[in-house]
Amino acid sequence: MDAVLTTPKPPPPIGEWHLPDRGTMGVIFLIVTETALFTIFVVAYLVYNGKSLSGPYPKDVLDLPILASICLLSSSATIVFAENALKKHRLGMFKLWWLATILLGLEFLVSTGMEWRKLIYEYHLTVSTNLFGTTFYSLVGLHASHVIVGMCFLILVMLVTLRGFPIATQERRVKFLSWYWHFVDAVWIVVFTVVYVIGR
Amino acid sequence: MSSIQSSLDRPQVEEARFSFSSHLYDWVSTVDHKRLGLMYIVTALLFLVIAGIMATVIRLQLAFPNGHVVDPDTFNRLFTMHGTTMVFLVGMPFVAGLSNYLVPLMIGARDMAFPRLNAFGFWIFLFGGFLLYFSYIGGSGLSGAGSAPDVGWFAYAPLTSRAFSRGASTDYWILGILVAGIGSIASAINVIVTTISMRCPGMTFSRMPMFVWVMLIDSWLIIIALPPLSAAQIMLLVDRFMNGNFFNTQNGGSAVLWQHFFWIFGHPEVYILIFPAFAILSEVIPIFSRKPIFGRPAMVGAVAAIGFISLGVWAHHMFAVGMTSWSNTFFTASTMLVGIPTGIKIFNWTATMYGGKLRLDTPMLFCCAFLFQFLIAGLTGIMLATGPFDWQLHDSYFVVGHFHFTLVAGLVFALFAGMYYWFPKVSGRLYNEKLGKWHFWLFVIGVELTFVPMHFLGFLGMPRRIYTYAPDRGWNFWNLLATSGLIFQLPATLLFVWNVVHSAIKGKIAGDDPWDAWTLEWATTSPPPEYNFETTPEVHSSRPLWDLKNPNDPDWRFE
C-alpha cells in the first residue's frame, strides 16, 4: 500500500490574505468607463475640427479661459489639503479648504457660463449653428456637467459637516470624491488642450 | 421552569401565510445577488420569447415569394426590434445574470461587492427595456408617424435624422438602450470589483475558475466598449433635439462617423455576447469529460487576447463604405488575428475532451454542438473579414447566416448548456434528462435548417432586410427551407420551458453536487442559502472540491 494513500497530508496553511479595498476599486473602474465616454467626444471634436462649413470659427470667438483653468486645477490642490486636514482630525482646517474647493469650482462654472453667454449672444453660436458649435457645446458641456455633479457632492459633504455630522468617519468617501474631482480636472487639461490650443 | 425559559430564548419566527404582496415586496426590494441574477435571466428569457416570436413572423413573411403576412412598415419594425431586443435585452442581461448568480458563489463570497448598485443596475436595465417597448404605444409622437423604431439595430445615420425618422420611435430606441446601458455598466463594474476584492482566502487569480476569469475580461470589455455607444447616442440626441450637426451631412457632419462610433462599440459587443459561451464551455466540458481543462493559462491568455484585439477590428463592418486601402488592409489583418486565440480555445476544449471519460448528458451535448457550429461561424467570419470577399457579400443573407451561427448556434447553445448544468443548483431539483435530449436534437435540426440555407441565399444575392422577393430569383427553395426550421425550433423551445417549469416544481431532489463537480458553487446547498456559505471557504487549488473529495490525491500538490 502506498503510504501517501493512507495518510493524507493537510494542505499548506494560507498566509496573510489581503485584497484591495472594494470602494477604491469601484472608483477606479468608474473612472475607466468615464474615460472611455470622454474619449469618444474628444475624438468627435478632433475629427470635426476645422470642418465647419460656415462661421463663427474657433479662432475668432474663443478666448483662453486662463482664470477658470487656474481655479479648477488649484481646486485639486485644496481638496488634497482638506483631505490631509481630515486625516489629522483638524476639522476647522478641513472646512476651510473644503469651502475653498467649492468656491474655486463655482468660479469655474461661472466663467464657463459667462463664456457661453458671450458666445450665444454676441457671436450667435449655438449647437445648431455649425459643427464647431455642436462639438464645442457637447464636449465642454459634458465636462461641465461632470463638474456640476462633483459640486453637488462637494456641497453635500459641506452641509453635513456644518450640521456637525462626524465627517472624520467618512474619510474613505471623502477620498473617493477627491479622486473623482482629480479626474474631472485631468479631463479639463485634455479638453483645454483640444479645444483652446489645438482647436484654435 | 427551564423548559419555559428555553422556549422564550428561542427566536420566535412568525410563519407568515403565503401572501402575494409580501413575496412581490421581497423580490422587488432584494439586493441578493442570486435573486437579482435569476431576475436578469428570467427577464432575458421573456425578451427572448418576444424577439423569437418576431423572428417567427419575419421567417413566415419570407417563406414564400411575394409574401404578405405583414405590411412593409411592420416588417422594418420587426427586424429592428428583433435585433435590438436580442442584443441589448437578451444577450446583455444573460451576461449580467450569469455573472451575478455564479461569480460570488464560485469565488466563495457572500454577495457582490456592491449589492445595492447591483439592484439599481437590474431595475434600470429593466425599465430601459420597457422604455424601448413603450415605443409601440408612444412612438408615434405628436407627428403621428411610425410606432416602434424601424431604423435597424445599428441605426445608421442619416436614417435616424429628424427628416427621415419622424415621430418619437427613434428617440425611444436611443433612450431605452442608453438607460439599459447604464445598468450593464453598473453590473460590469460590480463583477470586476467583486472578482478583485471579494475572493475567499486562497482564491488567487491563478486558482480562479475559468468562468470567473472569462466574466472578468467580459466585464472589462463592457466598461470600455459600452460608453462609445452611449456617447454616440448622446450625440444623436443632440442632433435630434437641439438640431446639432454631428451626423447631419447637410452641414458638414459625417454619417460614416456614426458607423465608426457604433462599431467601436458594436464589434467588442459581439465578443461581450459570446464570452459567456466561452465561460460556460470552460466549466461544463471539463466536468463532463472528467478531466481538468487543458492548457488553463493558454485559455486565460486567449480570452485576454480576444478582449484586447477585438477593440481594434471594428471597421471590418464598414469595408463597403469606401475606406482607404490601408484601412481595409489593417482591419482585415486585425480581424484575422482574432482567429488565432479563438483557435486556441477550440483546440483546448477538444483537447480537454480527448481521452476523457465523456458523459453525454444534455449540457455536454449542447457544448459538443457548440464546438462544431461555432467553428463554422468562425470560418465564415474569416471569410467576411477579407475585404474583397466582403464587397461581394456585404449586407447579404450570408452575413445574416454568419452572425446567427455565432449567436444562435453558438451563444444560445452554450446558454442552454449552462442553464441545464446549473439548473439543479438554482432550483435544487434535477431536470428531466429525456426531455432535455429531445430539446437538444430538435433544436440542432431546427437551427441547421434555418441558418445553413441563409449562407446559400447570400451567395445567390439575396440582400438582408428585404421585405419580400420575386419568385424568379431562385431563392424560393432556400427560403422555404429556412422557415421550415421553425417546425423543429418552436416545439424544442416549448419542451425547454415545460422542462424547466415542471422540473422546478416536481423534479427529483438534486442534492448539493449532482454532477460531481469541482468548483465552489457545488459546495453549498442547492439552492444556496442567502448567505451562500456558512463558513468562508478556503481554497488550495483550482479545483477545491476535488481536493475535498480526494484528500489522498489533492490538486494543490501539483499546482
Can you offer a commentary on this structure?
The complex is a heterodimer of chains A (about 200) and B (about 550). Chain A has about 200 residues and is mostly helical. Chain A has a domain at about 65-200: Cytochrome c oxidase, subunit III, four-helix bundle (Four Helix Bundle (Hemerythrin (Met), subunit A)). Chain A has 7 helices and no strands. The model of chain A has no long low-confidence stretch (mean pLDDT about 90). The termini of chain B are far apart. In chain B, α7 (about 210-240) packs parallel to α9 and α8 (about 255-290) packs across α13. Chain B contains 17 helices and no strands. Chain B is globular, with a radius of gyration of 24 Å. Classes of the chains: A mainly alpha (about 200), B mainly alpha (about 550).
Rg of chain A, nearest Å: 24 Å
Mean pLDDT of chain A: 91
* Overall strand count of chain A: 0
CATH class designation of the domain at 64-200 in chain A: Mainly Alpha
Largest sheet of chain A: none
> How would you characterize the largest beta sheet of chain B?
none
CATH architecture of the domain at 64-200 in chain A: Up-down Bundle
Gross geometry of chain A? flat
**Computed Rg of chain B:** 24 Å
Runs of chain A with pLDDT <50, length 5+? none
Strand proportion of chain A? under 5%
Distance between the termini of chain A: 84 Å
